[in-house]
Design goal:
This protein is 0% helix and 47% strand. It is mainly beta. It has a two-stranded antiparallel ribbon with strand order 1-2. A two-stranded antiparallel ribbon has the order 3-4. GO terms for molecular function: calcium ion binding.
């Protein structure tokens, strides 16, 4: 078997999987920017919104940072993979960028 992966035939956001007589390109984990294999522990570097923790790229919970990220009144922070979003608190709705009571 010729190791086609030695010639790095895959794109930057993929890793190469050598198979008998061939190879396949597999997508890197969403937490990675470039990778050497499957999973968040094989990242070359962590994607934005992720940090290296115990040799893995893990999501940063922006909602638990000391500095508040959702600063408008009556607004709650919702953590998402690699990011976060600001939503109006319960009983409030977004009206032209302001959370007003419903």
């Amino acid at each position: 078997d010729l190791d086609e992966c030695a010639a790095t035939p895959c794109k930057d956001h993929q890793y190469c999987l050598n198979t008998d007589g061939s190879f396949s390109c597999k997508a890197c984990d969403a937490s990675c920017v470039g990778c050497t294999g499957e999973g968040s522990d094989k990242c070359k570097t962590c994607a934005s919104g992720y940090m290296k923790e115990d040799e893995k790229c893990t999501d940063i919970d922006e909602c638990n940072l000391p500095e508040k990220v959702c600063v408008k009144e009556n607004q709650d922070c919702v953590n998402t993979p690699g990011s976060y979003k600001c939503v109006c608190s319960e009983g409030f709705e977004d009206k032209d960028g302001t959370c007003v009571q419903t």
